[in-house]
Structures are given as structure tokens and as C-alpha cells.
Amino acid sequence: MDDYELIDSGNGRKLERFGSFILDRPCAQAVWSPSRLSEWDCADASFSRKDGLKWQGRDNLPSSWKVTIHGVRMKLATTNFGHLGVFPETRTIWDQIRNSIKLANEKHSNPIHFLNLFAYSGGATLAAAQGGAHCCHVDASKGMVQWARENAELNDLNQHPIRWIVDDVNKFLQREQRRGNQYDAILLDPPSFGRGKKGELYKIEQTLIETLSLVEAVLSENPVFVYLTSHTPGFTPIVLNNLLRKYFSTGAIKSGEMLLTVAEKVLPVPSGAWARWQPE
User: Fold this and answer.
1) Domain limit, last residue, from 76, 110, 133
2) Residues 228 and 143 in one domain
3) pLDDT tens digit string along 2-33?
4) Model confidence over 157-216: pLDDT tens digits?
């Protein structure tokens, strides 16, 4: 059984179950009315951005707990920004990455090399590893890379060939290009705004173009896919589609919304956009 469930949403909030715990958190997209009002009283804790960033009921939760989401075991913990260490809207992308790499490995004599940029707590990295890829996991946050390594241990992948890199993504890609290192499958999930390892500024409107140019430069001659995802308002599926088309003029591009979904009669919640390029 999957340990994630979207229970309800509405009035700018979402109610979710992560394992044994139910959390009530902000969701600006949920402008409709809730459908299951009685369920909201069951929340173990809630997070608000009104009058500062604040948890209520945080003491009801352990310092960390473990869940399994779409075949990936993850450590969760509440952060001061209301995050938990996983974005459930990406879980179907994990499935697609895992399956695509499995199929590609059946056709290639050498293992597929997967690069995860802005890699956070490693859900996609671990899904790719489960598919048999040799992985490179890059994030500017030392703490998040350590969190991802802990997740690798939870999935018995601590001995799997995964490079764990703490660095500014564009600087890393520049070095990989100079070294001639290439990757068959690449995922990038750039932040709206971020800082690199040494305080380098990343603003998606200004910096993503350079990142995509560098991604193109390190893509192998036998590519499997390039995934571009975003939680930045205004970066719609069409915007991501157009960005990939600028760098990959041939091949097929599909795009769509990342959604929080669950059982019938619970409204899906749009939570960002994705686009995927694959060769013909």
C-alpha cells in the first residue's frame, strides 16, 4: 500500500496523509471549497504562512518517520518552510524514469547513466537506481544531499553506483563538459530562486537558459530522455515544452501538469509542470 494519500483540498489548503500522519498545509491552487469537511479535524498538525512561517501541532509528530511512495522508501521530517522531504506530485515521474531506464538497459550493453540536477532528497535518483542506472545526484545543499544518502540506505542502495555531489548545478555542468563526461538520461527541477554551494545566485528566468544549454552539451549520443520540471508560477507545460524544443529540435516532446491525485471523487490538485524530451 502506498503511504501517501491526498484526502481533500480547498480554501487554499490541502489535507494529506503521509504514513500514519495527516497534515494540513497551504495550497494556493486549491481555490475551490473542500469536499470532505469532517476529515480536516483529523489533522495531526498544520502549517501556515500567515503571520510568518509556523507549524501548529508539530509536537504531535516524531522528529522523522519513514514512508514508501511508489516503491521508494523515504525519510520525512517537518522543516521550518513547511516541507517534508518529498514532493508527492513527482511520484508518477519516478515511475516513468524507473521504467524508461529498465527498458533502455535491455537495449544497451552498458548501464544507463542518469543525472539528477537540483536533486533534493533523491526520490528520482533512487527510482533511476532501482531501474538499474548508474546515477549522479547534484544539489547545492549539503544537508539535502545527506538526506538523500540516508534515503538510499533505506532502499538498500547505499552500495549502488551513485555519485553524491554538493555543488552549484551550472558550475558542475561546466566541469563535466570540460571533462567530456556525458549522461544518457537527465532530470532537472530548477528552483524559482536559489543559492549555490558558494552563494551563487540562481533565478530561473535568467539562469535556466544556461542550464539547458549545458544539459544539451553533456547529453550522450544515445540519449534516453531529458525531463524538465518546475514549480514556478507561470512556467506552464507549454513554456517547458518550448524551452526543451529550443535545445532539442528533433525527437518527441510531451508535457503536462504535475498533479496530486488520489481516489475517485477527490479533486486533483495541480502542483507544477513537466516536459519530457525523447529521441525519435
Assistant:
1) 76
2) yes
3) 899 999 999 999 999 999 999 999 999 999 99
4) 999 999 999 999 999 999 999 999 999 999 999 998 776 667 777 889 889 999 999 999
pLDDT digits (tens, 9 = 90+) for 60-95: 999 999 999 999 999 999 999 999 999 999 999 999
Domain coverage including residue 188: 88-278
Q: Do 242 and 231 meet the contact criterion of CB atoms below 8 Å apart?
A: no
C-beta separation of 66 from 56 below 8 A: no
Residue 147 carries which side chain, given as an amino acid letter? W
pTM: 0.94
